[in-house]
Amino acid sequence: MDLDHLMMMLGDTGEVTAPDTVQSYRDIWVIGQVANGDLTACTAQLLGKARELASDLGAYVRAGLFGHDLGDLGKQLIALGADVAHVADCPDLADLSLELPLHVLGTLLEEFKPAVILMPSGVIGDQLAPRLAQRFNATLTTQVVALRPDLSSRAVMADYAVYNGEFYESRSILAGPTFGPDSATQMFSVLPGAFRTPDPDRYRTGTVEPVAVDPSAVTGRVGVVGPTPYQRPLVAISRAQRIVALGFDLGEENVSAARALAERWGAHLAGDRTAASAGWIDYNQVVGVTGYDVAPDVYLALGVRGNTEHNVGMERARFVIAIHPDPNASIFEVADWCIVAEPGQILARL
Amino acid sequence: MRIIVLINQILDPSGMTVNRRAQQVFVNRREYILNPADLSAVEAALQVRDAAGGDVTIVGLGPERVVESIRQALSMGADQGLAIIDESGAAADPAVRARLLAAAVRKAGPFDLVLTGDRVLDSDGGQIGPRVAELLDLPQLISVETVACQENRAEAIRSTETGYQRVEAPLPVLATLPPDANRPRFGTAQRIVNVYRDQSAVKCLSPADLDPTGEASSPQTRSGGRGYPTPREPGTRLEGTVEEITGRLVTALGLGA
């Protein structure tokens, strides 16, 4: 809670003017996202984190939600931790990448002057947020994986992922308190899964405020023509469910056996950079920071040594089986099943 | 058709080892490369130019070495290069970076299309595209697979949850591309030699040329400190003879019969 707000509540209005004329930056906001008629998991995680930050820094949590056919999702925002939910429900808000949602969000920012805004990455956090940050001179950190309150300056510090999450960098604001009149909004676009999902509390109370939307306020320049068939020029190993990955220690003589296995098992062929250099796979099949991020159900690594650059690209795989002759190969740090053997020997019997 | 491509230069991650337990990044080979998403933006720009005519200007912002990456884009077939040499590191702040790049785009003259990557590997620079679009008051097409220009409109294809979708906007427009949108071309040997011989291929400016008061280049944020993700839980080591192990694998992978 801000000091001037507190004073007003205590009835000490002698010196402090009412907050709506002070134009003070206050409150922690969460902008929610809807998918398939429900709040996304990331939205719930953000509300849980906002609640924590709010009790550390002394602030209220407000949530904003845009879309169409939102039903009673406003109440869910309250149950997950918001004190006030601002809900804009309008058929023109169904596609968030267009200009109307930008306008609606901008109007809210202007009216309420949030001190901190948390957004899920994706359309809201990566398309709308940067434009608004530039418009309102706010700071924005995207790809956020951790948020920490700095209690002495009442600001929020963020860690954001670089090199597809190989490590994190920290960013803090240079000047001024986060709350109060001489401030600027701090915006954060957060990756899903960064925080714990809170349990909803159905008995939490709060107000749901509908936001009036005037679709004629904006003449949209970007228009959707319609669906279109399209074939990407590159093989999308990013979406493969099963992957057989080749590494240099597989040995040239076993490559054809590995290819046959991939075909028989219905898997995509991939590999690390050394396999591409050896000519066993194409460069668009390379897994890793400079190649592709993959998240298959099963990732079978044959003779892949597993340097950091490769491991970061496949660590979201659900189950990893690694076969490598060296017991100290770093692929075993990310594998669920570690098999210390010549991959050729195993391949011959599969 | 005048096209401007904004590029970033990054430290090559394949020359780098991240040890999460020791909480350290070891750089074995300090080499800089063109950010992969920006590389596909350069390729998209060249494709638009090849279809509709016009010229492609590459704009890079960073320390002196950014010129090398601009030369790489020139050797692929771009027409002009403009480098904003900033050794102070103030451009690590996204707002400063966007303001300087927008000023450079204005300085480069009239334009129809601004292209850039939708992410930057070594920072959260994916926000630069929309920020520049805001500063130049352009419509934005974010993370699109292809861009094509017809008369006064830009058409793009973007991927949605339900398949691909065609979107359009009037020129001038800003579009960003993901790193795997296309297959970037290589320059011909002759072009590479020519670009490297031509000392004046890349025009260099300093931030002071674009922002004489220095107001736009004062950062609001500071970067510093690193964090590391928690290492994955160790897995189980499969013991036994080769036959036993392969037996378990065949069952697990469903390869039997």
Number of helices of chain A: 10
User: What structural category do the secondary elements of chain B indicate?
Assistant: alpha/beta
Encode the helix/strand succession of chain A as letters.
Answer: HHEEEHEHEHEHEEEEEEEHEHEHEEH
**Which CATH class of chain B applies here?**
Alpha Beta
Structural class of chain A: alpha/beta
Give the neighbour order of strands across the main sheet of chain B: 9-13-8-1-6-7-14
Oligomeric nature of the chains:
heterodimer
Strand numbers in spatial order across the main sheet of chain A? 9-8-7-10-6-1-4-5-11
* CATH-derived architecture of the largest domain in chain A: 3-Layer(aba) Sandwich
Annotated CATH architecture of chain B: 3-Layer(aba) Sandwich
What are the secondary-structure elements of chain B, in order, as H or E? EEEEEHEHEHEHEEEEEHEHEEH
Distance, first to last CA of chain B = 60 Å
Using only CA atoms, what is the Rg of chain B? 22 Å
Structural account:
The complex is a heterodimer of chains A (350) and B (257). Chain A has a nine-stranded mixed β-sheet with strand order 9-8-7-10-6-1-4-5-11, sandwiched between helices. Chain A is an alpha/beta fold and 350 residues long. Chain A contains ten helices and 17 strands. Chain A is elongated and about 75 Å long. Chain A folds into two domains: 3-217, HUPs (Rossmann fold); 237-349, TPP-binding domain (Rossmann fold, 3-Layer(aba) Sandwich), CATH 3.40.50. In chain A, strand 2 and strand 3 form a beta hairpin. Helices cover 26% and strands 27% of the residues of chain A. Chain B has 257 residues and is α/β, with parallel strands linked by helices. In chain B, helix 2 (66-76) crosses helix 5 (189-197) and helix 3 crosses helix 4 (128-135). Chain B is built from seven helices and 16 strands. Chain B has a seven-stranded parallel β-sheet, sandwiched between helices. In chain B, strands 10-11-12 form a three-stranded antiparallel β-sheet. Chain B has a two-stranded antiparallel ribbon with strand order 2-5. The model of chain B has no long low-confidence stretch (mean pLDDT 88). Chain B has a single domain (2-253), classed as 3-Layer(aba) Sandwich (Rossmann fold), CATH 3.40.50.620. Chains A and B meet through helix 6, strand 7, strand 8, strand 9 and strand 12 of A and strand 3, helix 3, helix 4, strand 9 and strand 12 of B. Strand 12 of chain A pairs antiparallel with strand 12 of chain B, so a sheet runs across the interface.
